[in-house]
Amino acid sequence: MAITFDHNRPIYLQLKEKMYGDICSGELLPGSRLPSVREMAVQAGVNPNTVSRTYMEMEREGAVESRRGQGTFVTENSDVITSLKKTAAEEETRRLVNVLRQYGYKDDEIINLLKTEIHVKGEQPE
Amino acid sequence: MNEPFIKTGGLSKSYRGKKALDNVTVSIDRPGITGLIGPNGSGKSTLLKTAAGLLRPGKGSVTVLGEPVSRQVASRVSLLAEVDSLYGYQTPEEAVTFFSRVFPDFSSEKAASLLEKLEIDSGTEIKNLSKGSRARVKIALTLARDVPLLLMDEPLSGLDPIVREEILGMIISCIDISRQAAVISTHEVAEVEPFLDHVVFIRNGKILLSENVEKLRETKGKSVVEVMREVLS
């Protein structure tokens, strides 16, 4: 159950990315309650202080809100979730483009690859 | 109130002329989980036993929560010894009763619920339990005390990965890191790394580094394992 971390980067950031991923994919629904800091620490296999820091960071960025005495909840503000998704999508795209460029693909070839991939799945590009 | 949990000043200790600790000055100031990392024979156990009042300093000083360490420190320190420290003829249930009589801060309920969660047969004599079960009983008894400082000497050594993970899980679910300090000595750094707030490297009786783990990652961009390779090599 423990998450595997890259030990060269701060764990609180990696945990945040993982949780944002869960929010974007709908695994964590808007308004749902997050596990308590201690539960999350045991689940993820990390120090509780790391979880606190992740929660604080996510709260600062508006993705979750803590309610006194009740716990921490995923935001119900759909603008925030939309922008989380946008950021995540941009990052994924950047990573893909970087990899393909390293492989020596030209930009128009990359676009064609994307078009083909989307076409295969029977969806129209925008 | 804000006395360091452990503070040593110029602490040295020799066994028959062989130095185990060599002029060690280190302090653990904040609550949370500290990893005491070093190879075998580096002085980890000696340092923990000295802080627990089981060994006298050769030279220098050790204080726990502001007071010089004596045997009385046991009322504020819970120690998990590396060796089998329980009476083999007792059942886990009897060991719980025994601990509750020795340590006023010991919570029998907490110990019983931990043992139940771990599915330990509390009616079997400890000597007849498997090694993994004995280790579980030992850690459950250590964690069931309500003390500011917990010292765990090699809690993971010689155990299989499943038991090790379980024990680490128990440690973080039992310790209140806002007020308790736990020191875990180990050479299995990679495994404990995600659990640590602070790390202390020791070799040949000398402290090589004492640093906050997130700070290490942020400033050096390196894992504790890598830093250890650098520092210990």
Model description:
The complex is a heterodimer of chains A (126) and B (233). In chain A, strands 1-2 form a two-stranded antiparallel ribbon. Chain A has helices spanning 11-25, 37-44, 48-60, 78-102, 107-120; strands at residues 64-67, 71-74. Chain A is mainly alpha-helical and 126 residues long. In chain A, helix 1 crosses helix 3. Chain A folds into 2 domains: 11-76, Winged helix-like DNA-binding domain superfamily/Winged helix DNA-binding domain (Arc Repressor Mutant, subunit A), CATH 1.10.10; 79-120. Helix content of chain B is 33%, strand content 27%. Chain B has helices at 44-51, 92-102, 108-117, 131-143, 161-174, 189-192, 213-220, 224-232; strands at residues 6-15, 18-28, 32-37, 59-64, 67-68, 77-80, 149-153, 181-186, 198-203, 206-212. A 6-stranded mixed beta sheet of chain B has the order 6-7-8-3-9-10, with helices on both faces. In chain B, strands 2-1-4-5 form a 4-stranded antiparallel beta sheet, with helices on one face. In chain B, helix 2 (92-102) packs antiparallel against helix 3 and helix 3 (108-117) packs antiparallel against helix 4 (131-143). The N and C termini of chain B lie far apart (39 Å). At the A-B interface, helix 2 and helix 3 of A face helix 5, helix 7 and helix 8 of B.
